[in-house]
Amino acid sequence: MSVTIDEIAGDVISRAGDVKRFLIAIAGPPGAGKSTMADNLADALRARGETAEVLPMDGFHMDNAILIERGLLSRKGIPETFDVRGFLDIIRAVRPADQEVLIPVFDRSRELAIASARVVSPEHRFIIVEGNYLLFSQGKWAELEGIFDYSVMLAPPIEVLEERLWERWRGYKLSEEEASAKVYGNDLPNGRLILGNRRRADVTLDVA
Predict the structure, then answer these.
(1) If you classify domain 5-205 with CATH, what class do you get?
(2) In whole angstroms, what is the distance from residue 84 CA to residue 62 CA?
(3) In sequence order, what DSSP letters do the residues of 30-88 get, joined into one string?
(4) Would the pLDDT of 2 be above 80?
(5) φ and ψ at 62, to 5 degrees?
(6) Where are the chain's structural domains?
(7) CA–CA separation, 44 vs 48, rounded Å?
(8) 3 state DSSP class of 158
(9) What is the pTM of this model?
(10) Contact 5/37 with Cβ under 8 angstroms?
(11) With left for phi above 0 and alpha for psi between -120 and 50, is residue 97 left, alpha or beta?
(12) Residue 103: which of 58, 146, 73 has the closest Cα?
């Protein structure tokens, strides 16, 4: 399916009507372009006079010290390496738009989450949540079913993901061997897991 950011912005505004809070999910595998799309959609909504904020799921990565203790550091990013309960708590707190909610943001350059790094206020009408597992049908992630008002699934072909993931890890100055381990040992298998176990989205795109 092909649709522009402006078309999605128009669609969500139309669906939102006069509600005070409208939650949008942008889901997909690593390298699909979720964060870029979330930022662009927020800009498009603001350009139409709306208030919008982005809530990234990556802020709920477990700390590396915990992952080392559990033998999961090399698999960082799989479903078991996130604070799912904490994420669900935040989403449920954000849902009614009746209070200010402080959210964590992930700093990829330091590989850690920064607590209370962004504010979702009651005045933000559109909250754009982006992350791998928003439409994941397994485990505790399935509790997100029905909580979003609108959902977008980014599902590029595996070969496109592979190319983007190589670009990502080379950009962090990893060696070819280190980048290969990230791409083929973790990110691509995780991407296949996400694509193979997803709930239906309002919009599914093969290109972000």
Answers:
(1) alpha beta
(2) 10
(3) TTS-HHHHHHHHHHHHHHTT--EEEEEGGGGBPPHHHHHHTT-GGGTTSGGGB-HHHHH
(4) no
(5) -65, 150
(6) 5-205
(7) 7
(8) helix
(9) 0.94
(10) yes
(11) left
(12) 58
SS3 content of the chain, % helix, strand, coil (to 5): 45, 20, 35
Closest CA to 56 of 3, 117, 137, 136: 117
To 5 degrees, how large is the angle CA 111–CA 112–CA 113? 140
CA dist., res. 55 & res. 119, Å (int): 9
Instruction: Give tens-digit pLDDT for 123-181.
Output: 999 999 999 999 999 999 999 999 999 999 999 999 999 999 999 888 888 899 999 99
The CB-side HSE value for 160 (13 A sphere, CA atoms) comes to 13
Q: What are the tokens at 156?
A: 């590029």
Go through the chain and tell me how many residues it has. Answer: 208
Contact partners, residue 75, CB within 8 Å, separation at least 6? 67, 81, 186
Side by side, the strands of the sheet bearing 150-154 are 52-56, 126-131, 22-27, 150-154, 203-205
User: Is 1's pLDDT higher than 70?
Assistant: no
Helix, coil or strand: residue 19: coil
Per-residue model confidence as pLDDT tens digits over 44-86 = 999 999 999 999 999 999 999 999 999 999 999 999 999 999 9
Whether 208 has a pLDDT exceeding 70, the answer reads no
